[in-house]
Amino acid sequence: MVVIEPVSTGSSTEENRDRKKLLEDDDYQPAAAREASASDGFETASDGEHDDLGKAEADTTASQERQDSRQEEALSEDQLIQRTLTQVNDAKLEGNKLFGAGQYEEALAKYELALHAAPDKPEFVEIRSICHANRATCFSKLRKYEDAIKESTKALELNPGYAKALNRRAEAHEKLEHFDEAIADLKKILELEPSNVQASRTIRHLEPKAELKREKMKEEMIDLLTEENYVSWSRSMQRALRARSKIRFINGDFQRPTDPADPLLDAWERCNDLV
Fold it and tell me: Which residue stretches does the UniProt record annotate as biased composition, category Basic and acidic residues (predicted)?
């Protein structure tokens, strides 16, 4: 029997050697092994994730701020004024609601907020004047008439022809019995509104009070001057009496005057208690 042995070819031996060489070669590695090797000694993606996220958020915030700034710059002057006017008017309207509810202190705060938001520009003169006049009304309701006068005056400084502010100030003056000042404001209202019946009626009502107060003030002034003059005269007479008494003492006649006709008797009696 003939036994046939497997044929060993040279190519097979060379192929085995090539495979062995490839396995031993550093450049030939499975993909997973290469990735693990590449990561050795280096920061992995998961390790730097938080830092990258923080940087991204910071970049986003900065980008948004730049965008907002560009949008702000893109707004025209008229748009900025209109936006601010809307904010101021909203605060004023909130104040009006609070006033209507009888919450005068809270309304004052809202009007003050509106005034702070309104810049000192011509476009805001009217609404600033209105807010001051509304504050005057609140102060009148709180019976703080001096403050009401101050706020009305501020409103009139912005708008001299503001009849409502003149009326508010006139009412406050009347409450404080400043009748002449109230009449002056009411006359200004008539200059602006000649047909204002209420202003005319109030003037007729206040004029007698103003005259009575003027007369009373005159009397008080006369009394004050008389009192001052009397004190001055009494002190002078006292000095004269003392001088006369010294003379009488020297002459041995240091006595209270007894003759009703002696002018020093009246001075003695009046000045006896004066120092």
Answer: 14-23, 47-58
State how far the Cα of 69 lies from the Cα of 87, in Å rounded to an integer: 20
Distance CA 275, CA 271 (A): 8
Question: What distance lies between CA 149 and its chain's CA centroid?
Answer: 17
Query: Domain coordinates of the chain in residue numbers?
Result: 76-195, 218-275
- Average pLDDT on 56-73 reads 66
Distance between CA atoms of 155 and 140, rounded to whole angstroms?
A: 15
Q: Residue 133's closest CA among 106, 105, 162, 98? A: 162
Helices (H), 122-262: 125-141, 145-158, 163-175, 179-192, 197-250
Q: Mind listing the pLDDT tens digit for each residue in 99-114?
A: 999 999 999 999 999 9
Please report, for residues 134, 178, 198, 205, 242, the alpha-carbon distance to residue 174 in angstroms, rounded to integers and kept in the order given. Answer: 18, 6, 14, 11, 52
Burial label, 38 (beta-carbon count in 10 A; 0-12, 13-18, 19+): exposed
- Give the domain 76-195 fold: 1.25.40
Cα distance between residue 203 and residue 215, in whole Å: 18
- Taking only the tens place, the pLDDT of each residue in 135-187 is 999 999 999 999 999 999 999 999 999 999 999 999 999 999 999 999 999 99
89 touches 117 (CB < 8 A): no
pTM assigned to the model = 0.56
Which is nearest to 131 in space by CA: 152, 145, 147? 152
Mean pLDDT within 106-127: 95
Q: Among candidates 127, 134, 186, which has minimal Cα distance to 158?
A: 127
Sign of CA dihedral 93, 97, 102, 105: negative
